[in-house]
Amino acid sequence: MLNEREVESCYLGQFIPVHYHHNMLMDDNRMKNFKAAISHAVRPGAKVLELGGGTGVLSWFAAANASKVWCVEYNPDLVKEARRFLALNQHGHKVEVIHADAFDYLPPEPVDVVICEMIHVAMLREKQVEVIEAFKQRYLQRFGGPLPLFIPEAVVMAVQPLQQDYSFEGYCAPIVQFQPHTLHPGTVEMAAPAVYSILDFSQPTDTLIRWEGSFRMQASGTLNALRFITKNILTILPQQSATIDWLNHYMVLPLAEPLRVTTGDEVHVSFQYRAGNSIASLQNAISAQVVGACIEADRAVAYA
């Protein structure tokens, strides 16, 4: 019988289908940026740990320079896939795929780099923040400091108000959408994005994320959605004063009560959620309202 953590993991996406991980291999943006970051961060002879290894590809990137890589994966189907793929590739023998829970595992010796790519937009669903924090506590108790370098090193999250078209061949359906970074038809940006959280994994990180702030509307129309933007700073290049980043797809959440707004209106937005929780936990916590002395008493409108 599954314990509470296992039940939650299944529900929140820890056991997403194997073909989803295959699709991740075909994501050129993800693959190239992680390869570049790992190639830079993993020095020759380094020891590396990956928490949540999936198909093993990020561990394989590390194996090009590392002397040893421990790749921890909880999903037994992915453990088999990773072992099968690594056996087909040069340097794959340097990666040991371990069937274990990333919440509990510690490597047999100190490591130089930890890779943890349990990344979802807004840090929802997957348990990256909680896993890394738990790992840091276990690691310091066992080995002392310093902590290894983490990939990603940090995450920057922003939110942006939108007018989003929810008509699908005439069928009105306000749904959660994941959009590419290109201009999306039917999307009107009502104001510039605002950063609401920066997580630095070298420092203690709280799973509770909360924000409140105001936007000045740059267009008139119907504010009916918020776009959540997540930029993963995979590694920092101090000599170049640059970073290697990976930008998740945008996540657009419909508002429960759309607002009619006019250019210049001030809209107050607030929300809070815990990293790793469901998308609905954020969606249900969002509050948005027009504020100001000259604002009509009731700006709520129907989606249609």
TrEMBL record:
Q: Name one Pfam family in it.
A: Methyltransf_25
MF terms in GO: histone methyltransferase activity; protein-arginine N-methyltransferase activity
Keyword set, alphabetical order: Methyltransferase, Transferase
Q: Which domain of life is it from?
A: Bacteria
Which GO terms of type biological process are on file? methylation
Which residues belong to any copy of the Methyltransferase domain? Answer: 48-133
Q: CDD domains recorded for this chain?
A: AdoMet_MTases
Q: What is this protein called?
A: Methyltransferase domain-containing protein
Q: What organism does this protein naturally occur in?
A: Noviherbaspirillum sedimenti
